[in-house]
Amino acid sequence: AKTDPKEKCVQFQQHMRLLRDQHLAIKKDLERAIREHEFTLHFQPIACTQTDRVISAEALIRWQHPERGLVAPDDFIPVAEETGLINEIGEWVNRQVCSMQARLAEMSLPLPLALNVSPRQLSDPDFVSKMKALPMETGCDPSMLSIEITEGVLLGDIPNALETLSSLKEAGYRIVIDDFGTGYSNLAYLHNYPIDGIKIDRVFMEDVEAGGAIVKLVLSLASALGADVVAEGVETIEQRRWLSENGCHRFQGYLYSKPVPEDRFLSMLHTQSRI
Ligand code: C2E
Ligand code: CA
Ligand code: CA
Ligand code: CA
């Protein structure tokens, strides 16, 4: 039997109410998380395809939830973005990563680090001035910090993208395009922006398995732009070998290491520096 349209309408309204309530609940939960410092950073090494040594790392946020345990960013960053709470969370992330870079340098481990910034953060009018203050406040070297943004940022997701990115670049930070190849196929915009690096999205590891025609194209594009390349989501020795043989020197993925807590990341670095 068909459901009567009126009944359907009631069901829809109930569904929307449920969604709104869930959204509100996560928002409240996130506000507490900010107050109670429930966030933590994991670090995923970026290694050299030829020497297998750690050459950099990406900071990735986790939420140490009192009931739910360790919550992955995909389960809360979207709500944080919608509610604007991402700005406050992101400020914490940026300060943590900058301090970490300064501490590494003090330990004679001058390793570049990367942090993620969402479009909503970049459109915050205070974002640039806060980033500019961090080297003085934390002792970090901005040239050792990459700001990872997604392709959408370059294509009108945020107003004044060029101005914002140029100011960050002027402040000494590196600008890196994350998830490259998943957003748009229009490449015409690329040379207009101050881009230091490109991260090839992990969906392209399938292309590598199939000969790597697309990845080769991205590598030569990056080289024409003078940008470094990191291959993301590298899970097999064969993928790493292909990258090494085709001039891609940086890789990140489960083959080398999953993202790990800070203490484990530091012990990896100390072990490496003794070898
Ligand atoms: P992303 O920036 O593209 O980060 C890479 C994601 O791929 C991470 O997921 C990482 O754990 C996962 N990954 C790494 N190697 C492999 C692999 O070999 N295979 C597979 N299948 N996955 C791999 P994670 O940590 O869950 O982060 C998800 C996304 O959340 C990130 O994607 C990023 O967009 C966002 N995110 C994470 N931390 C932050 C942050 O501090 N601020 C903002 N705004 N976004 C963040
Ligand atoms: Ca990233
Ligand atoms: Ca990525
Ligand atoms: Ca992503």
TrEMBL record:
Query: Boundaries of each EAL domain copy?
Result: 23-273
This protein is called EAL domain-containing protein
Part of the full-length chain shown: 431 to 705 of 708
